Amino acid sequence: MSKGVTIFWFRRDLRIEDNTGLFQALKEPFPVQPIFIFDTDILEYLPKKDARVEFIHQEIQRLQEELRQRNTSIDVRIGKPIETWKKLLGDYDIKAVWANRDYEPYARKRDKSVYELLRENGIGFKAKKDHVIFEKSEVTKENGDPYVVYTPYSRLWKSELTDNHLHPSNSVAVSNWAKSGYAIPTLKEVGFEPAGIDFPPRNTEYNIIKSYDKTRDIPAKRGTSRLSLHLRFGTISIRSLAKKAKELNEKYLNELIWRDFYQSILWHFPQVVEENFSKKYNGIKWRNNEDEFEKWKAGKTGFPIVDAGMRELNKTGFMHNRVRMIAASFLTKHLLTDWRRGEAYFAEKLLDFELASNNGGWQWAAGTGVDAQPYFRIFNPYSQTEKFDKNRNYIYKWIPEVNTDLYPKPIVEHRFARERALETYKAGMNLTSE
Long-range contacts of range 185-190, CB-CB < 8 Å, 24 or more positions apart? Predict the structure, then answer.
């Protein structure tokens, strides 16, 4: 067994710079040994070419190179977390464990189990805030209740924000590493294969953030930063990005606040993962037509803006945010398919999938969530196209056959679908109120 060490557990924070939990670990009296666990409780349900696993593996390799410059390395394990920790207890003389907090229901349950195991062995397990600017109950009403409407939440979020919230932790400057020379298992050894997808870079042109309010809704333009993947896995610091957004563009900052807002909702109302946030919609009779759902997934609905988005998603793991809203509204309202089915498909395909934001976005589109669009607001795919892809540049990119006989006819007539959705939602609300 090695000499006493402090373990830092990398999870959704794959970076050395400005890493709050890592900074605290490095200040411990015992040297830090970093670890990462490829969690088989999660991996066993993923396709073998899941691009997110490839991305994580790629970022761990980058992290390893940075750690080697500090005469240390990351100990990468593959297995169930609790069983892995039992092995780690035998492999190291662990004096303390540090990590950064994860707010998703599965992660909370996992961390509680690990905490109990370590406590039984006389070891402290401490975690810091690193994934958000404000967490849990830091932004609430005066009586302590969580906000369920974005506008007052964002107003208080901005009024509470200080330079200290955006100040980076100086984890790069502290050198207290355990000497080690571990090798990283290959992607194949983890049980996965390359997906053939190009990942967006960790940095972005600040001009994109500066002009975000003017370009964010145009899917044919590079008008968004595409940093959501890196925020999801913590390869960049939310503090540094929020600081830059505060300096350059309030609209961009608002998007980061939405992210905190949905994390707060998930923390206070974890049932939203499976249930409508708004119970008045529990009586909706979803059609859940399998053939229509398959056509929606494949980008073959006959509605070009919807199909372009779905094809972009299937090919790249990304979909423009405006088109995400259109595609989600179309599935839930035009086709009356349960939002949970669409949410699950996005969860499978999106590189930047984050439970809180994905769930919040889908319930917003369906009208069932917090601060959601009203049920009677139904996106018209044709008018959305005229407004945001007038020259069809985005559509032509993803559907080159759109003006030929090879492209399918619409699977439903817009006006009919709109009226059907209104009737179905009204009937569902009446059932719930009875």
Answer: 185/38, 185/76, 185/78, 187/53, 187/54, 187/57, 189/78, 190/38, 190/43, 190/53, 190/57, 190/78
Residues marked active site are found at: 255, 258, 286, 321, 339, 362
Q: Decide the pairing of beta strands 93-100 and 75-79.
A: unpaired
Lowest mean pLDDT among 3-7, 144-148, 232-236, 430-434: 430-434
pLDDT at 1: 55
Residue 75 near residue 34, CB atoms below 8 Å: yes
Domain count, the chain: 3
Please state, in angstroms and rounded to a whole number, the distance separating the CA atoms of residues 195 and 173: 36
pLDDT at position 371: 87
Out of 221, 241, 268, a domain closes at: 268
> Quick check: 220 and 394 in contact, CB under 8 A?
yes
- CB-CB contact of 125 with 114 (8 Å): yes
pLDDT computed for residue 433 by the predictor: 56
Q: In terms of residues, how long is the chain?
A: 434
pLDDT(314) > 80: yes
Distance CA 202, CA 302 (A): 36
pLDDT above 70 covers a percentage of the chain that reads: 99
- The one-letter amino acid code at 342 reads G
Instruction: Please compute Rg for the chain using Cα positions.
Output: 23
288 and 250 assigned to the same domain: no
Look-up of token digits 């049932």: 271
Residue 11 shares a structural domain with residue 138: no
Q: Report phi then psi at 221, rounded to 5.
A: -100, 155
Indicate the DSSP class of residue 332: I
If phi > 0 it is left, if psi is from -120 to 50 it is alpha, else beta; for residue 53 that is: alpha
* 360 and 345 together in one domain: yes
Q: What is the pLDDT of residue 175?
A: 87
Residue 31 and residue 51: Cα distance in Å, rounded? 34
pLDDT value at residue 245: 96
Order of strands across the sheet that contains 93-100: 75-79, 32-39, 4-10, 93-100, 124-128
3-state secondary structure of 12: coil
Band the pLDDT of 432: cuts 50, 70, 90. low
- Residue of 181, 147, 168 lying closest to 258 (CA atoms): 147
